[in-house]
Amino acid sequence: MGTHRSPTSATTSGSTVRQRLSPAGRLIGLDLARGIALFAMMVTHIFALSDPAGLPTWAAVFAGRASALFAVLAGCSLVLSTRSRMAASGRLRDAVPSVLIRAGAIVIIGLCLGSVSSLLAVILVNYGVMFAIAMLFLRLRARTLFVIAVVWMILSPVLSMLIRSEFGLEPMYSSMSWFDLASPLTMLHDLVLTGYYPVLQWLSYILLGMAVAKIDIGKHLMSLFAAGLGLFLVGKGVSWLLINVAGGGPGLVRVSQLYGTDLNAALFTGSYGVTPTTSWWWLAIAGPHSSTPFDLLATAGTALMTIVVCQSLAMLLGRQTWVLAPLTAPGSMPLSVYSAHVVLLEITRRWIGANPMLGGEAMTPQTVEFGLHGLVFIGFALMWKLAIDAHGPLEAGVAAIIRSASPVPAPGLEPSEPVPGAESESESESESESTRKSASRPPDTY
């Protein structure tokens, strides 16, 4: 005798799957943007950014932009992960333990990955430090944070150039690991000034992301897109004028030839964190990972526009956002996926190196490697969300530690303290509504 599933059971099952892939109350647009950032970074990790002649390849389009988007989204996550705690009392000190625990966990994971990775500059230690610093800005309003972020993008590279040139600090070009603890002073200036992701400049991305998360993104899509486009045009446009009109180009050619610097790489594929200090004209470029004012402005603008496009798509799809799950599922667990990618890359790169003919004439070995990473992390994220938990293993583990060590304070025990930097009435009302809703939710685990 056969068994048949009732239509009601099938409908319930389908609804459960959709709910797990697209949980109510979660900003799916941000998960989509995180997914894009993750796979764009994988492109830059796997494919060559320049050809044998030194010219940029198609993969160079993502150089600098992917990691900048990831950093801006990390700033969004900082606000979202402390929203419930801040809503309960309005006091910064209620969010401090959770932020410090999260920052410490990220630093530890980053040091572990840096100790095993020989291929990548792992960014997690820098993120942990920036989270701890950015915590001091949590109570500021969106507009104040946006202004601070833009000013930081303009001034911090100048300060970095002054300090590095004054003390003769040179880039180390090494991933932060446990071994660096043996030389704390070197580790400190590498972390803040001379590393792949100098905290001094990159903190501006975190602050910008915090500003984005402080507003109702759905109601400010056009404003955010306009801001992003403006930052991009200023970053690229002013850099072009300085190099091609104001005399920066010939000046950079001279110092590049004199000191043996690869100018083409600095302009198109990457400077590995900071520019040389041989000329102030270096601050005029907008090349990937140069951490100049114009690089920061342009990549921040690209990040804002990407977030707007992703959130717009999520709003258009409405309840059908589950169709975006191949990107949003990995994007909902970025710490887990990024960490696993760092480890897997060590394995696949040796495999690719041992099989140079892999892929045959149809695909390059790099295409095979990227396809493998894509399939592994999309498949893993989908199965994890459907069968185990809405959040990735590392995200859930860190959240469990936070809940155990620092429970969310009960709301309504004391009146909230006033928040400095009041904005327009409409934005204040929007934030107040968001705060009231978040006060009744469990702690966010973004």
TrEMBL record:
InterPro entries linked to this entry: Bact_Transport_Assoc (IPR052529), HGSNAT_cat (IPR012429)
The keyword Transmembrane helix is assigned to this record: yes
Domain of life of the source: Bacteria
Domain Heparan-alpha-glucosaminide N-acetyltransferase catalytic stretches: 26-219
Region (Disordered): 409-446
Keywords, ordered alphabetically: Membrane, Transmembrane, Transmembrane helix
Spans traversing the lipid bilayer: 27-49, 55-80, 92-113, 119-138, 145-163, 195-212, 224-243, 296-317
Protein name in the entry: Heparan-alpha-glucosaminide N-acetyltransferase catalytic domain-containing protein
Species this chain originates from: Brevibacterium antiquum
